[in-house]
């Protein structure tokens, strides 16, 4: 004779109270979720998307910038001294200017010919000269005045004596005003082609 084994039905979770049923305080209709263990991080805990980056030590000041500054200062001082030295050489050397008469300027003159200037600004050219012939003083006076005009001066009333014989070394006395000052110079021919230089007989450059 066999025994009938009855399998009990599965447990039914409690549901909401049926209509008309009385709800008992403290009753749990649904099972509460299990709390995570103390000190552990639940799987649903949010994580920060911006984690703090590593910290770096502050850079130490480099000594290269100070060295560059010292070198620049030294070069500036050397350049300044060079400019000052050049100014002294120009002012005291044969290029220094010396007054020529009342209206002109000269750098220096050869010792064997006092009063003759080697300054190109005090030279001119009289056109139409022919060796062995005479030359008009009026035409020469125009070119003498032009010499002063080229030096940014204002010549007026210049007159020159006629040259009786055009040749190297021939001279003509000239006079006029330059910037309101009376000027007396001599135009000396350097050749027979009209090139002349202004000479002041009253100044000895030697």
From TrEMBL:
UniProt superkingdom: Bacteria
Keywords assigned by UniProt, alphabetized: Membrane, Transmembrane, Transmembrane helix
Biased composition annotated in UniProt, kind: Low complexity: 20-32
Composition skew (Pro residues), residue ranges: 7-19
Spans traversing the lipid bilayer: 67-91
Renumbered residue ranges of the record's region Disordered: 1-32
Presence of keyword Transmembrane helix: yes
Protein name, as recorded: DUF4333 domain-containing protein
